[in-house]
Design brief:
Elements (H helix, E strand, L loop, with lengths): L2 H30 L5 E2 L2 E2 L7 H12 L3 E10 L3 H8 L2 H10 L6 E6 L2 E5 L4 E10 L3 E10 L7 E15 L5 E13 L2 H5 L1 H32 L1 H9 L6 H13 L15
Antiparallel strand pairs: 1-2, 3-9, 4-5, 5-6, 6-7, 7-8, 8-9
Length: 268
């Protein structure tokens, strides 16, 4: 065996050993991280979350600045439509904006990763951590500025539990409960928790309720004014063809939806 080959094998062995050593603390840390399954009286399948994500979420949950619960809230949408919009924030934001139900903006930044802006001083990145038929868990990094609060940045964990139910009229709807934990990045501000918590808590609650309300109003618009919703979806620039096709089918099958047809463009 030549010296070059022997040296290469030796170097490769050393690198492999160093790599294993470097990974050991990470693995040990992942095994030591834990998130409780119960949050605000709601059980979430946290045991199914990837171990690396658990270690990222745990500090936010354990050392939160504010914790909030919204719901259960009834949304007047069929489960298939609700889930479609839930998993496509840019489509939902575009419809809410065009129907003048809010000022939301959203863009896809990768698989399960989105940038969003609520039009009222809050923006950030949202990343899907886990999903199944009845749950979604998200990790958020964002910022907020307003007259009452200085420019603050923080991280959040949002857990969503949903179930298909019937509304008072016997129509299919979705009941949603949302639990969130927020932690400020600035140590000075985070140290003033006793003073800031009521203000930050009210701000977060209002933001969450505003988003839920926008979705509920969108559901009512889809049931009561399907023609208008379809027009806004196809008005230039139209939504992507696959989204328009889904909306046409969904609106046509909704209770009391009426006849669905495209309108001729009108001047604004």
């Amino acid at each position: 065996m030549s010296r070059v080959v022997a040296a290469g094998i030796c170097a490769g062995t050393i690198c492999a050993a160093l790599l294993l050593i470097s990974l050991m603390p990470v693995q040990a840390q992942a095994e030591s991280c834990h998130i409780a399954p119960q949050h605000a009286g709601v059980t979430f399948p946290v045991e199914r979350i990837d171990a690396a994500w658990v270690c990222r979420l745990q500090p936010i949950i354990d050392e939160f600045t504010t914790a909030n619960k919204v719901g259960p809230v009834l949304t007047p949408l069929q489960e298939s439509v609700y889930v479609y919009l839930l998993d496509r924030p840019p489509v939902a934001a575009a419809l809410v904006n065009r129907l003048e139900l809010g000022l939301y903006k959203a863009e896809t930044r990768g698989p399960g990763r989105y940038w969003g802006d609520d039009g009222e001083g809050t923006e950030g990145l949202v990343e899907l951590v886990y999903q199944d038929v009845n749950h979604r868990m998200y990790y958020l990094e964002g910022s907020h500025h307003s007259r009452l609060l200085p420019h603050v940045t923080g991280k959040a964990v949002v857990m969503l539990s949903m179930a298909t139910v019937q509304d008072a009229a016997g129509q299919e709807a979705v009941e949603t409960t949302l639990v969130s934990y927020t932690r400020l990045d600035n140590r000075v501000l985070a140290g003033l928790v006793s003073l800031l918590r009521p203000l930050v808590g009210r701000t977060v609650s209002r933001k969450l309720m505003k988003g839920v309300d926008a979705v509920n109003r969108l559901g009512m618009e889809m049931r009561q004014h399907p023609d208008r919703v379809l027009f806004e979806a196809t008005d230039p620039p139209p939504l992507p063809p696959e989204d328009v096709a889904f909306l046409k089918q969904a609106l046509a099958s909704m209770p009391h939806a009426g006849n669905i047809h495209e309108k001729e463009p009108v001047s604004r």
